[in-house]
Amino acid sequence: MTQTCIFQQAKSCFIFSTFCFQAILLSLVPKQRETILIFTFCSLSLCQLPGTGDVAVSSSSLAEEIRLRTRMRGSLSWAPPRFQIIFTVQPTNRRSEVVALQHFLCAGCGTEVEPREYFCDCCHGGSEAVIPGRLLSCWDFGRYPVSDFSKRLLDSVWHQPLFDLTCVGKTLYSRVKELDKFRELQEQLMGINKLLSACRLSGRVMAEFDQLPAHLMEQPHLFSMEDLWRVKKGPLVVQARAVLHSAIDHVENCELCLARGFICEFCRERDVIFPFQADICRRCPVCRTCFHKHCFVQKKCPKCARIQSRKKHPDGFHDDTTHFKSSSVQN
Fold first, then answer.
1. Which intervals hold domain Rubicon Homology (predicted)?
2. Which of 312, 306, 300 has its CA nearest to residue 324?
3. What is the rounded CA–CA span in Å between residue 138 and residue 153?
4. What is the β-pairing status of strands 72-73 and 163-164?
5. Residues 123, 108: contact at Cβ < 8 Å?
6. Tens-place pLDDT, residues 66-113
7. pLDDT tens for each residue of 118-176
8. Which of 46, 124, 129, 170 has the fewest CB atoms in 10 Å of its CB?
9. What is the DSSP letter of 105?
10. pTM surpassing 0.90?
């Protein structure tokens, strides 16, 4: 028997064993084509493992050549799925065309399947899950059939903050009222959290912030699938509102926090205002001082005027408003 025949037989045996091994470890994307939102597949060609593409093999060592050249993922007509989350709903293609493109092989393990099936029974157990693309595109939390492989992937990312709504799902804020309401609460909570972190008496109320996911207080617009589900069902909005009310109650009754607030220099009313009060407060875009929203006049900020006067008259400038005190929260 020639070396070529030996090589081909050994290669065929290795491919068969690879199929069996991968059939156990890998599972699939959803049965319905419209729910194939989780993965893209490698092209149906032989995929060598990393590091074997440029291996120089000596013709004198047949065993070494077999060992190196048969390290592959998949076969000539099938390759396993890769981990990938797709953020949009994919178009629906004709089942017969898709199955033909799969060479009538199971998309997950490469075994032969019925002409009308995408997957074998071992790779698709009928599990259901929320599809990220449908959630972000349509605010659809319905559960759709997915493969076991997809199910494990979706379960593993359910709690992870992966979805920045300024990059994906950009229209959700304008279309989903409860999500836009939570965005407002989140902005207020992040602002008041900075104020409370500088107060040595805020330990009790700061502990209440631990009830909320940490990433929601660190970066706006970043959500996990669980966060979005809790926004839709309501508990996250209720919880955020309760924490905000508790924090505001502390600020209004804490002398240390009140000392870090602002008094509007336009109307000179004695009520103290804070940056997190977005409904009544407006900040100067230059000096970041707070004023009543209805009082503020663009380009006529009193503090900016004083700053400019000091720059023009660094030695002789006299601030006739030194009797007026207004402290500010550091940016």
1. 117-311
2. 306
3. 21
4. unpaired
5. yes
6. 555 555 556 666 667 777 787 888 777 787 887 787 777 877 777 787
7. 788 888 888 899 999 999 999 999 999 988 888 888 999 999 999 999 998 889 999 99
8. 170
9. B
10. no
